[in-house]
Design goal:
CATH class: Alpha Beta
Number of helices: 8
Distance between the termini: 35 Å
Order of helices and strands: HHHEHEHEEHEHEHEE
Shape: globular
CATH topology: Rossmann fold
Structural class: alpha/beta
CATH superfamily: Vaccinia Virus protein VP39
CATH architecture: 3-Layer(aba) Sandwich
Radius of gyration: 17 Å
Number of strands: 8
Helix content: 25-40%
Number of domains: 1
Amino acid sequence: MDYETDTKNAYRNKEKAKDYQDQYIKGTKWARFTMWRQKALIKRALYRCNLTAKDRILDIPCGTGFIGHILSDNPASVIASDISIDMMSLANNEYQGANFYGFVQSDITETPFKRSAFSCVILLALMHRLPKEIRGKVLKEVTQLSNKYIIVSYSIESPAQKIKQWVLKKVQPSHVPAPSSIPLQEVINELTSYGLIVRNMFHIVYFLSAKVVFLVERDENNK
């Protein structure tokens, strides 16, 4: 999988953006269940952040606004950002709250936002599609943007997931697994290397899903 073609520029067209949105609206029951489960966990993580109207949230990459409704129910002000204008155009109706301050097109490795401008940066459904070098650039950027919390998802490598991928490859030879599914301890080491402390870890579905959501906090000693 090539980062530039299959991730960075993959969703910068209307058809691909609509396909992405449809996976959690019209997709398989399992896909919709995991999406619902992920929303519930994001809501739980936000609750633990204890944000107020004085705080700001950055949803990046926001995609088609998958968690827009959850953020609309939060008291903090919200800004959504993505590299794809086509993805953001489908997210217009997802952010309904008066606390939403609009969309900003940007590359997550080099954003235009002021450093430490957000109390919480939410980074979902991206890290599993990035090579290690790009993950590092992303973590460096979002750590500088946040002054407190980051909510980030990873795809975790495990024996159960290896078996699952083997089965999927047999059933569907064209199946391409996430390129950067990595062991849990390596994820934790990666996060801590950027001055982040893991406060909570939420599994989407134990054993059946590789997706894990982390609530991390900036280390006061590294600010």
